[in-house]
Write a structure and sequence with these properties.
Two copies of one chain form a homodimer. Chain A contains 13 helices and eleven strands. By secondary structure, chain A is of the alpha/beta class. Chain A starts with a strand and ends in an 11-residue tail after the last helix.
């Protein structure tokens, strides 16, 4: 069965020293010669103002080498990957001109990889969201020149949520040129705040242990982003916008009841024109093209997602090649085969992604 | 069918001016004569350092008047309410001696209400968690002198999570005297941080709109609290402790797959002795008496909860008398009657709460 993995990340093997180029620190580097790194491994690090480097993640060759990716896709049965940058590269914190240049470099790299293997890779660009006009310019280049179906953006831009007028202007441009928008958590709530505001260590400890920025912060981030586009009226203003939230919508699906009841019982705290969040989910009359990926790691949670969103709004996404992702993309979906109609399984494994990415029908038989 | 509502809040109608008594501001008051308040209404407000008052919630007589509560319980078919204070009253931020005195006042009030109607009310105390020895002293008074089955605590104590040694000492005392512990979110992540650290307004805006501190912050708070007791080994050290998390465990159940996978794929980020979080949920061999309440406002979410925790670990909880609660306590559970065994429905409506509260068997037929 055809599998399209909507949620995978890629980086170039090398890129110029942006710290030197820009004249200030905070940029991400991929160090291939870091101590303890063997062949096929490298280390992600951030440049600090004092000239030092802070390492934060060891990665393997499958992050940058298309040949290794293709071999692993063959093993796991993934036909097509949507390639997006690693969210730490968003660089929304940086001067817009520098972030814009970095986005162009990353997008050119993704374009070159997908052009080399167009049957196996499709690109999602990154754009400097801190600068509306540059973001729109690069969005248009991604779609019109590089042939990408859309872009990946963060759940917030320097603490600004997705109901911000500047963000809406970018999303409006995306809708008008038919670009899809994949939303990925980053710069997580308290975690991000700490890094910027210099909170005390004691406060930081709220999420410091047990990988909680990733396990609690990211799902909460995604929930904030979804609430912002729903209650901020973004989905109503842009009914043709195809938007997809990663990690199965984070904590939104499991707390939808509370969120919907909150709006119903305290309408004074919501805009007068806001709607029940359930209106945007399953059903033929829903006013939005609002997708999530399938990355929930639990069959009961995936069942909940299918009931809430419908299989044609859930796209296989694995977070490849990171360990918090699904080791064999689509394995959880395949566990549901016995209880779903075959066209629903097809939706989950490829059809929803094809619709989101606006891919042409394929001879292998995409259901969309 | 017998209904026990584990999650209800109560306040005295009047209490002394704690700002005047302590000599500093930040205390909560219930203003019956606030502008716009009619008979049967009052306003919760906080005293500020400049002598002003900040109103934050209008409440009705059912918050303080037992007769009104009893009449509403008759209407909704609730036989027994567990009474706990409103979490804004925790006062963990205050000087311990002042918070201790306030806790004693609140607990004496709850004891007097439950003593007047022991067949309809049972008390859960509040204790000054910022001071381990005072907290244990008041915990013991609640159980041994006031006859409460246990206490309600917050999801954090001034930013400290529930895996803190001081908290564990209090929970150890609770286990040793057989006291149950009901955990309620408060002082929510970013929201709470802002109030303490004076973050900029822009940062505060992450959760400022759409009631997000309550709709996103509270579920995330509860998830942080559950991760802290699981991965911090608290449930392993205290296997006889009966602990219950409100709001159906917040965002934990819906993101359990991600949390379990995170621990499995990055064991280096977790204590060596930590276990799979699923070990603590359903199953006869689970190492903990770990409950949640039923307040999820969505039948699919309640189904997920029943599959994960089992009906004998889920207790009806309504958050009465607040609007974010379940208007008719148990209505969501009753929607599941057709698909559950009758003893499971009994568990959900009363049996799990009776087990958590360690109530004696009743002639009306508690299933426990």
């Amino acid at each position: 069965m055809l599998k399209i993995d909507l949620h995978t990340h890629i980086l170039p093997q090398h890129w110029p020293d942006w710290t030197q180029r820009s004249g200030y620190a905070g940029w991400i580097e991929l160090a291939h010669d870091a101590p303890g790194c063997t062949a096929g491994c490298a280390r992600l690090q951030r440049s600090e103002a004092d000239g030092s480097r802070t390492s934060f993640r060891d990665v393997r060759e499958n992050l940058w080498n298309p040949a290794v990716r293709l071999a692993e896709m063959q093993t796991t049965g993934v036909n097509l990957q949507a390639l997006s940058t690693v969210p730490v590269m968003f660089s929304y914190w940086a001067k817009a001109a520098d972030a814009y240049d970095l986005a162009r470099l990353l997008n050119d790299h993704i374009a070159s990889v997908s052009a080399s293997h167009p049957e196996h890779f499709v690109g999602l660009g990154t754009i400097p969201m801190q600068d509306t006009s540059r973001a729109i310019r690069e969005l248009e280049r991604c779609v019109k020149e590089l042939g990408f179906p859309g872009v990946q953006i963060g759940t917030n831009i320097n603490g600004v949520n997705l109901d911000d007028p500047g963000v809406i202007e970018i999303l409006t441009a995306a809708e008008s040129i038919g670009a899809c928008v994949f939303v990925h958590p980053w710069d997580m709530l308290q975690f991000g705040l700490h890094a910027r505001a210099g909170e005390s260590a004691r406060t930081m400890n709220r999420l410091a242990r047990y990988w909680m920025p990733w396990l609690v912060g990211m799902p909460a981030e995604t929930c904030v982003a979804i609430c912002s586009v729903i209650f901020g009226g973004v989905l109503d203003r842009l009914p043709r916008l195809r938007v997809c939230f990663s990690h199965g919508g984070g904590s939104f699906p499991g707390t939808l009841g509370r969120i919907a009841h909150g709006r119903a019982c305290r309408p004074d705290l919501f805009p007068a024109e806001s709607r029940d969040p359930r209106d945007y989910l399953a059903g033929p009359d829903r006013p939005a093209k609002f997708f999530v990926d399938s990355l929930v790691h639990d069959i009961d949670a995936l069942r909940l997602l299918v009931r809430q969103f419908g299989s044609n709004r859930i796209a296989l996404g694995s977070d490849y090649p990171f360990p918090l992702g699904e080791d064999r993309p689509g394995a959880l979906i395949e566990q549901m085969k016995a209880e779903l109609a075959s066209e629903c399984v097809t939706d989950l494994l490829s059809g929803s992604a094809a619709q989101f990415l606006n891919l042409p029908p394929r001879p292998t038989g995409l259901h969309s």
